[in-house]
Amino acid sequence: MPLKLEGHHARKRFGQNFLNDRHWIGRIIDSIDPRPGEALVEIGPGQAALTKEVIGRAGHETAVEIDRDLAAWLRGLFTEAELTLIEADALALDWRSIFPGRKLRIFGNLPYNISSPILFALAAVADRVEDQHFMLQREVVERMVCPPGSRTYGRLSAMLQRSYRMEKLFDVPPGAFTPSPKVTSSVVRMVPLARKPGVDDELYAEVVAAAFGMRRKTLRNALSKLLSVEQIELAGIDPGARAETLSVGQFEALAAALGRARA
After folding, report:
1. How far apart, in whole angstroms, are the C-alpha atoms of residue 217 and residue 227?
2. Dihedral of CA 52/55/57/61: which sign?
3. DSSP 8-state symbol, 12
4. How many CA atoms, within 13 angstroms, populate the side-chain half-sphere of residue 23?
């Protein structure tokens, strides 16, 4: 079985860019630090650049691959004892069905075109996760980790920072991939946080979406369909503030206020 699937071209509809630089592969694997016995799950193994190294260190991983040709090739490259392959769309996967009762270590080079939806889907099962290591477009990672008040702080920031402690580890240049993307990539580490009790996830998401849906508006205007000025003030928030200045805790206070308003 060849080390690469000959004749297979990266498919735009799957957002494929295959990592092939040994230096960057090594840095990513060292960051993940996979070990035997862990519930390691890779999203989009592609041509197995990370897969081979993880299996070499840990002995086994589970991988989720949507491309049927690559899935067939991966089954021939690894034994069932080395690789458990789930041929599926990561967005449609029931993540709670994988390794029931165990904490997952999830990693991968996420397709740029669906990175945010995958991150949101995984946030819903963050309690099942030990950590996540992803390679994403640099601009996405910067939005994920930036603090309130930053130019890039937005809905993605507020949603993910409620669920994870996140750290940008390093950039990966376009030349490390085939084909080379037009953007620089970054590797991010995501470690789940304990959730504050009593704040409804759906209400939190609703408040954050409304607040950033009218980004240049004050909360008084952006949240007018959800909360009155008085209710915003009772939550301890200035109605004249803008969404990009609010911390996760302040958004949680607004979500709690919305819950009381609807009770």
Report:
1. 15
2. positive
3. G
4. 6
109 labeled binding residue? yes
Is 76 annotated as contributing to ligand binding?
A: no
Two structure tokens written together for 209: 């979406």
Q: Side chain identity at 164, as an amino acid letter?
A: Y
Assigned token pair, 74: 């991966």
- One-letter amino acid at 165 equals R
Question: In order of start, what are the domains of the chain with their CATH numbers?
Answer: 12-192 (3.40.50.150), 201-262 (1.10.8.100)
Q: Is 7 annotated as a binding residue?
A: no
In this predicted model, what pLDDT tens digit does every residue of 164-209 receive, in sequence order?
999 999 999 999 987 787 889 999 999 999 887 888 999 999 999 9
pLDDT one-digit tens code per residue, 27-47 = 999 999 999 999 999 999 988
Strands 61-65 and 83-87, how do they pair?
parallel
Helix, strand, coil shares of the chain as percentages rounded to 5? 45, 20, 35
230 is in an annotated binding site: no
Which neighbouring-strand residues pair with 133?
A: 107, 189
20 is in an annotated binding site: no
Q: Is there a binding annotation on residue 200?
A: no
